[in-house]
Amino acid sequence: MNSHNSSSxxxxxxLWKVFGDNPEKIVNSSDADLSRSELREKTGNTAAxxxxxxxxxPGEVFVVMGLSGSGxxxxxxxxxxxxxxTAGSVLFNGEDVLKADPARxxxxxxxxxxxxxxxxxxxxxxxxxxxxxxxxxxxGVKKIERHKRAQEVIELVGLQGYSEAYPEQLSGGMQxxxxxxxALAVDPQVxxxxxxxxxxxxxxxxxxxxxxxxxxxxxxKTMIFITHDLSEAMKLGDRIAIMRDGAVVQxxxxxxxxxxxxxxxxxxxxxxxxxxxxxxxRYLARPARPGEATDGPELDSSTIIxxxxxxxxxxxxPVRVSExxxxxxxxxxxxxxxxxxxxxx
Amino acid sequence: xxxxxxxxxxxxxxxxxxGLLLAACSGSGVDQAATTTEDTAATPAVECGEVGIAMxxxxxxxATANVLTEIAKKEFDCTVNQVELAEAGVTYDAMExxxxxxxxxxxxxxxWQEWVDRGSVVELGPNxxxxxxxxxxxxxxxxxxxxxxxxxxxxxxxxxxxxxxxGGKGAWLEGPPGYTTIGEKMIEANKLNFKAINxxxxxxxxxxxxxxxxxxxxxxxxxxxxxxxxxxxELARINFPDNDWTDAAEASGLTDYPATPLIKLASKxxxxxxxxxxxxLQNFSWSNEDQNAVAADIEGGxxxxxxxxxxxxxxxxxxxxxxx
Amino acid sequence: MxxxxxxxxxxxxxxxxxxxxxVLAIIFKGVATLELATYQNTFVTQTANDAAxxxxxxxTQSAAFIYFFNPIRGFISGFVELIRMLIAIPAPNSIxxxxxxxxxxxxxTFFVFLTSNFRTTILAVSLLFGCGLLGMWxxxxxxxxxxxxxxxxSLSIGIPLxxxxxxxxxxxxxxxxxxxxxxxxxxxxxxxxxxxxxLIGTASATIATMVYSIPLSIRITSHAIRSLNNSPIEASIxxxxxxxxxxxxxxxxxxxxxxxxxxNQTVMAALxxxxxxxxxxxxxxxxxxxxxxxxxxVGDGFVAGLAVVFIAIMLDRSTSAAAKTKQTFVPPSKKExxxxxxxxxxxxxxxxxxxxxxxxxxxxxxxxxxxxxxxIVASNTxxxxxxxxxxxxxxxxxxxxxxxxxxxxxxxxxxxxxxxxITITMIALIAYLLGGRKVALLAIGLMLLIVACGLWYETMVxxxxxxxxxxxxxxxxxILGVWIGRSQKAYKILRPFLDAGQTLPAFVYLVPILGxxxxxxxxxxxxxxVYSIPVVVKIVGEGIKGVSTTMIEAATAAGSNAWQxxxxxxxxxxxxxxxxxxxxxxxxxxxxxxxxxxxGSGGLGYLVIVGGSKPELQGKGLVAGFxxxxxxxxxxxxxxxxxxxxxx
Lengths: 345, 324, 648
Known about the structure:
The structure holds three protein chains of three kinds.
Chain A lengths: L9 E10 L16 H8 L2 E11 L4 E6 L5 H8 L7 E6 L2 E2 L5 H10 L1 E4 L11 H5 L1 H5 L4 H14 L15 H14 L4 E5 L7 H18 L2 E6 L2 H7 L2 E6 L2 E6 L1 H6 L4 H8 L3 H4 L2 H4 L13 E3 L4 H10 L4 E5 L2 E6 L1 H12 L1
Parallel strand pairs in A: 3-8, 3-9, 6-7, 7-8, 11-12
Antiparallel strand pairs in A: 1-2, 1-4, 4-5, 9-10, 12-13
Helix pairs in contact in A: 6-7
Chain B lengths: L1 H24 L3 H9 L12 E6 L3 H18 L2 E6 L4 H9 L4 E5 L6 H5 L3 E18 H6 L25 E5 L8 H7 L4 E5 L3 H13 L5 E6 L9 E4 L20 E9 H6 L2 H8 L4 H12 L4 H11 L1 H8 L1
Parallel strand pairs in B: 1-2, 5-6, 5-7
Antiparallel strand pairs in B: 3-9, 4-7, 4-8, 4-9
Helix pairs in contact in B: 3-11, 3-12, 11-12
Chain C lengths: L1 H26 L15 H16 L4 H25 L13 H15 L2 H16 L3 H31 L1 H16 L2 H12 L3 H25 L3 H9 L4 H34 L9 H9 L3 H27 L9 H27 L1 H4 L8 H42 L4 H16 L1 H17 L2 H31 L1 H16 L2 H12 L3 H25 L3 H9 L4 H12 L1 H19 L9 H11 L4 H29 L2
Helix pairs in contact in C: 1-17, 2-27, 3-6, 3-9, 4-5, 4-14, 5-13, 6-7, 6-9, 6-11, 7-9, 8-9, 8-27, 9-11, 10-11, 11-13, 12-13, 12-21, 13-16, 13-21, 16-19, 16-21, 17-18, 18-27, 19-20, 19-22, 19-25, 19-27, 20-22, 21-22, 22-25, 25-27, 26-27
């Protein structure tokens, strides 16, 4: 676990963030195991991020999920050093971001990283187009050029016709589109999204989630996505890390988390999720039992179970599940029924 | 928004620059008109320029200052700034800094010496008037208690003067902060059963005496001549033993205030400038009666400048003598 | 619950202390009070006198003056002179300022319209006309020029420092004690030391005004930067902007509105100070007002005071309108901009015509005498005041006597009339009960320092007046505060008075108050009440308004009547506001009670004033100023500590 994975886009090792005086003393000490209130009582410190390590593959959507106060927002800020971490390392293409000098850090932020914020963080005194062009502007790009690029991104996120508007004239959802566009404008390698949709209405939120999936397909950026909403995590994340009290409790695919919750905390979380809505056929696929038909219709393993259930219940036969053209097993309608009835409990 | 702001700022600064250029380039028409109409006025050898007169609060001072101001404006085309200032230290400092040049009536008994030694202030000698400070009661008290005007009998009447401010003793209304006062010493040296109340202003004294005479209230307070107020409310002077001092800081307190010749002061800057105002000031001298005549008009509601002009018109020979 | 019991216990303990103190004060009446005649000096005041004399003597020789103080004085008075030449005093080679009165009106019309709207422009111009009608044109222009000069210099220091303090916690930490001190320090105190180094004149007056207004502008600017929505700033940093880029492209544009509000506050502070600064040679309306105070002339003082009010309203409305016009970041439409440009151009032409006229036609250059109603206003004011004082004096004086004999004299007997060490012990005990050990020790230290300075008795006289004035202010302030907190209508009625009270320099109402109460400590106290009541009423009113409606609904549902609602629900719930109001009240009162030295209050204020005029007492005046500062810090710390202890 301590060696960095060289093929990763982002590789985080033993990252710590402790607030308060003499934060280094808490790192790796037994005090770090104390609960938040006990630690504050004892030393006056708060350990917001405790010994976190993970790797994100290029093009992957990596979701960090946790309740408020779990340290997820601090974690994402540590990655680009909006908050200076106390200890650990963050490798980006093999370079330790934490060791970069201020000029190099600015360069990374200008070219390689970009971020989307929960409260949008738009500049109220600038038009949409100038908001989107802001990062190019501070990079010294000429006005004509940066407006041309901004116009491209405006079309990419579906903001046509709004380039002359001011943020306060837009709805929340539209404002976050501007946020997304701004993050895309510099063509970054990694995007950090800090609860980007938490401030939006549920309906708008679903649209925006779909939008992110679409954008991800189109531009293929590596994304680190922070959320407190489990279904959002399941819907968007290739992999999910669950944080609690500053530490990562469990990390894995949605199936891993539901199938093998690491502890009761994770299990409690998963209980409320309606599994058929988030899990894919991969989760249910099993070898055919003797006597079962193996000539049913073929479905891809990434199909959400709920979407597959109609096909399966119409068929009298189990469907065949394939991944990358290879059969990995079958799923019968009873399997699905069992899962759904489990949901109901 | 930014564009709008820039636009506005640009318009504004353009406008200001244009306006001021216009103002600076075109010699103002008002000035030209002024010079043509004043061809008749005497043209002095040296221009008078600006003179600052320190204005002290009492009416007599206002009278003197305005007479000098009007003469200087008419005869020498001076620009006179009248600056309200407290007496003594404040004014001497102002003369040293160049904010004012002239004091027409100083009672300070030599406090200016330090500034004279430093070469910032010049003492021009007496202005012809004589000042007399003392302790006074309203006239009705002297009528009712004839022996009260002798300081030896004051303690007999101390109870009459008690107020909420005086802590069981008689209230002795002391003069304003800048004035020459030795009340505390007088009380102590003469073992008077009084307490000095620092009234802080001449207004307070005028109020107290007016109220005292009108409503037959017992008041004892600091007062002085020349002062036009004396003609409005009659006061009786308390007689202390004859004085033994000239410098208030050295006074024993046993004796009365002395009669003081009132002094003219000017800044070294003014005296060195050769301004005709300097000559005017040096020659200037008038009596308590002269001052009272002007002060009476001002108190009567006349504009100080007008009151001064009235006196100037009535006394051409005196004015002519000052012009030298 | 425990804290409530503690509070009741504290109350009884304080009563016991006061009882013991009273007994001791009677036994040791007049013993060791350290009372001093005005002309007497102690070791410290004599040393200060000598030091002041030697500083005065060195003004023409010492390097500090030649290379430091005098050049600063020269620069500032030169700058002030330039601005005064624009509107107030004759420009070089001319008998009129660059702009005659009509020119000023034209320029004001243009600029107020530029920064705000048509209505405000009309208001500003009519107020300017008012100043002229009052026969105060030149004095008004001097006051405006002095204010403008001080504001420009203050902002050029205050805004950059404020931005720095807004960006850096360390800078803020360094500045905060100075900012706090500046808020406690009564204005009268720093006039004398400044005059010692910068002499009497416009430079001293401007520097003193700056000392008063810079802290405000630093505070508001740094608050403007600090209170910005953080996420655009974080976004900017996350995109790799440098600190400077974030500052100029994000923080300043977003904070601009509030910084402009800070300008408004700075202007108002400077204006109120310029009036007081007449004491050290500021030209303008302060002179006539102080004159009216020293020789009895309410009428002339009223005329000048009215002109100050006009200028205050004009400057307030035009600068606050500038801050308010942009509630949105969205610019107006193209058509609106077009229209506005047209009317601006119109105004510009109007202004240029005005300027031209004011430079070429006599009636437009110098305010015509025919348009001067000052004598009518003054004589009518005198008639009204004379009638009022004649007919009301018996009421006001009996009230004064009642308060003086029964409240003021008894408290003064405790504080000033008992031996100094007993007073120190008792104050320290009360400070301990109210604020704890640390504050008690601080209070002892400060009081011993005051004793060492030699002005203990005077300090206690001033403290007495401060306490009595605050007590009366709080009684009146809570009544009015509850009233406006409960009734929107009451708020509407009182608001103009509160606003006026806050913008008027205390000097302006000192004269009529003197007329009503005569020269006495009580006159100073009333002035202190008038000055501090707007703040107290506003804070209490806000506190009462802020009590949650659920609480009130619950109490009303339980059948409380209005009196029960006020005493059992609203006032206890607004306790924090009451404590804050008391604290503010104390500091405001202290600032003005010392000005009472002009109207017979005695104490430290009188010594400060005497020190200005009598060179042989200059040092004593300076020490008196220092003692006021020590007293202010003591009062502030005790009030703060007890607010912290009982505020929750």
